[in-house]
Design goal:
Structural class: alpha+beta
Radius of gyration: 12 Å
Helix content: 25-40%
Shape: globular
Distance between the termini: 12 Å
Order of helices and strands: EEEHEE
Strand content: 25-35%
Number of helices: 1
Number of strands: 5
Strand order of the largest sheet: 3-2-1-4-5
């Protein structure tokens, strides 16, 4: 499973979390979106399934966050 957390907010002021390049979930804060990604990664880890969390930084670079 792949979680991508872009830096920019959506037009409605919410933060997007993109799951597997196609599903967009929205959250009131970026922290909430990241917490959801970490919870999903922890659940998948228990099942021994791979997960990646990528976060876009203020410099536009994407970084892999250890889950």
């Amino acid at each position: 499973m792949l979680f991508d957390l872009p830096l920019e907010m959506l037009e409605d002021g919410l933060h997007a979390l993109i799951v597997n390049h196609d599903t967009i979930l929205t959250f009131p804060t970026r922290r909430d979106a990241l917490a959801y990604a970490f919870a999903g990664a922890a659940e998948r880890s228990l099942q021994r399934l791979a997960t990646s969390i990528n976060v876009e930084g203020g410099d536009g670079a994407w970084r892999l966050v250890p889950a």
